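Q: Here's a chain of 279 amino acids. Please give me its 3D structure as tokens.
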Amino acid sequence: MATSKSNAVAQAEAYYDSPDADSFYFTIWGGEDIHIGMYKDDNEPIVPASHRNDETLASMLKGVDENTTVLDIGAGYGGAARHLAKSYGCKVICVNISETQNKLNRELNKKAGLDDKVEVLHGDFEAIPADDNSIDIVWSQDAILHSGNRPRVLDEVKRVLKPGGQFIFTDPMQSDDCPEGVLQPILDRIHLETLGSFGFYDKELTARGFEKLDVKEMTHQLRRHYWRVGEELKANYERLTKGSSTTYLDNMIKGLGRWVDGADKGYLAWGVMHYRLAK
């Protein structure tokens, strides 16, 4: 098992533990579900669209029941874990780098009466705190981009999965034909050198013995989500200053605009990827 933490993961831990980020993400980004939403239209609120991401991924899984163990890597506030535990009776292990988010996740699990079904561990996906061949499903929503060593993350996913186990995830990515250098402003803001792509993940997972079950390309939802979050931020700017600094909020507005622009120019990609490890 890998034991060291990449600089990108360390940066992500410090960022998501910050009061600025904690206030912004829980208030605006999606509440319990801080990942890209799947919207019916431009006017749909962020929270139900973000929860639809949970519902969509869950509907694609095969054979989930009370005997299934799901590992959510980069679990955030645990909205997806509670949805899975409540809907299927399965056990969910949340692994997440932010102890600030983990604390609220545990509180929400207890409030929902699910703390016996959902376990929350402080850790990262470059060194997953789980035994070899112990997990039925690895689940991740818009988190793996924060790794500075994505191949190592995929090695860890393979290590912990049982033979025949499923891996389902979403990730903000670059397009397979993205010109070099055009995403540098985005990468600089999130302290990364690269983004993944559909082609990258397919090649790396195939090399590790995974077979593709389904891939849904939904880049329009990435564009819509970053635009919607930006609009909500601007509409609630004064209220947000009670929890986040104006410097943070102003930089966030600029950063969100870069994601929208990158999507409009065809430089970005997003969607659901569902693979199964060979038996």
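Q: Can you summarize the key feature?
A: The beta strands are 69-73, 91-96, 118-122, 135-141, 161-170, 173-174, 210-217, 268-269, 271-277.
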